[in-house]
Amino acid sequence: MSAAEPVRLATLAAAQRYVDAWVAGDFPAMMAAYSDDFVLHWFGQNPFARTYEGREAAIGALMEFTRRTGRRLLAVVDVMAGAERATVIVREQITVGEETREIERTLVYRVANDQLAECWVYDQDQRFIDRALSA
Prior knowledge:
CATH class: Alpha Beta
Strand content: 35-45%
CATH topology: Nuclear Transport Factor 2, Chain: A
Radius of gyration: 15 Å
Shape: globular
Number of strands: 6
Structural class: alpha+beta
Distance between the termini: 50 Å
Number of helices: 4
């Protein structure tokens, strides 16, 4: 076992705990997975595209995204990790107006002290997401 393997396994475990809570619909466990100083990086050309600092700011943005899009988790495609980052690939259903699409999203996490400390959100169909969040 390499010296980095225990770190990789801890990073993977933190991401997997979050995913397990998400799949189970366990909102308190999902929120407990985020560190107090969690940072969320949201990309695109929409009013949400910025960096959110702190768990409360990030949760507020995520909840508003869900409200605007009616997003629903369809599947967890993969959860993987290296020593520095964990990556979660999910498939979600997103609705904009009368149009509903299945979108693959890649969430890249930095883990610190067994909690998710930072996230970068990458969307398969960024134009559709931009339209959803600009409406």
